[in-house]
Backbone:
């Protein structure tokens, strides 16, 4: 990203720092913009592009995901013309300066109210049975880069995720993330809302990483912010702590209560088809006849 002109944000830090080995003036503004000069003026947005950072020796490594690394790095032959994970290394000139840079970077990241601890449910049976691989290859590296602690469990059978949600110690986590299709999310919602402390449990943020067949919820959430449905975009949304409200429908069937998200289907057509078999001698008219016969039930 390029440096914008007429910047009026207050500067939190400004001094000479080595960036990727080159000594240059570096500033950190109160709105979370890190600026320096490398061939031309550069700007990194801590809110949208920075995952986290680490400090080792005299170096501070900022872990970022930059959508257009070519513009940020501006090297014609750079192999990374597209977006991707990149590290930017700051090397302050004194120990006190290093301490101050770490402090200010952490203070700003903490102010974003991002999750620090996540409980992750992986469904190894959904979709193409690739959820475990997706987690280890595509999700885990981002969580590590963002310094997010996590616990992960695989669902072993139908309604296992519901059981986990019902018994989970919610005080230990900032959110529950499903690496799966929509079915595991439905189980988790039902597990949370059937807890004795459901009024507290319903406030637990839920994240969706598409690893199932339909992935309708992940697609809907990402589409609402104009992002394509991909594992990377879903993980970044979780890391950034972006939240929207989720509509939930309550369904009562006799003494049974369950909760629905995304969609609810009523098997009326299947019922008519199956139960009208006794009138098969009527041909296709049996379907219309059975609807009229049972109008007091279906109308």
Residues:
């Amino acid at each position: 990203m390029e440096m914008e002109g007429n910047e009026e944000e207050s500067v939190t830090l400004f001094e000479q720092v080595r960036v990727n080995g080159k000594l240059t003036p570096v500033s950190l503004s109160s709105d979370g913009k890190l600026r320096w000069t490398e061939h031309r003026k550069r700007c990194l947005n801590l809110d949208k592009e920075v995952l986290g950072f680490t400090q080792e020796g005299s170096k501070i490594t900022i872990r970022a995901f930059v959508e257009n690394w070519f513009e940020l790095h501006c090297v014609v032959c750079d192999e990374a013309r597209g977006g991707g994970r990149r590290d930017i290394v700051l090397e302050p000139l004194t120990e006190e300066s290093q301490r101050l840079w770490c402090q200010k970077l952490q203070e700003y990241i903490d102010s974003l109210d991002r999750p620090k601890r996540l409980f992750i449910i992986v469904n190894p049976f959904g979709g193409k049975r690739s959820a475990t691989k997706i987690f280890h290859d595509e999700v885990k590296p981002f969580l590590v880069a963002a310094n997010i602690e996590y616990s992960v469990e695989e669902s072993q059978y139908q309604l296992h995720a519901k059981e986990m949600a019902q018994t989970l110690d919610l005080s230990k986590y900032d959110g529950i993330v499903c690496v799966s299709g929509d079915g595991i999310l439905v189980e988790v919602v039902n597990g949370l809302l059937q807890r004795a402390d459901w009024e507290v449990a319903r406030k637990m943020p839920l994240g969706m990483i598409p690893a199932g067949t339909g992935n309708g919820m992940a697609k809907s959430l990402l589409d609402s912010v104009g992002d394509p449905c991909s594992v990377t975009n879903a993980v970044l949304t979780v890391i950034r702590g972006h939240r929207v409200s989720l509509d939930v429908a309550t369904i009562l069937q006799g003494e049974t209560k369950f909760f629905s998200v995304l969609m609810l289907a009523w098997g009326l057509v299947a019922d008519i088809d199956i139960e009208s078999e006794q009138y098969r001698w009527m041909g296709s008219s049996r379907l219309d006849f059975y609807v009229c016969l049972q109008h007091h039930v279906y109308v």
About this structure: Confidence is low (pLDDT under 50) at residues 1-7, 72-82. The chain has three domains: 11-111, 117-251, 268-298. The longest strand covers residues 11-19.
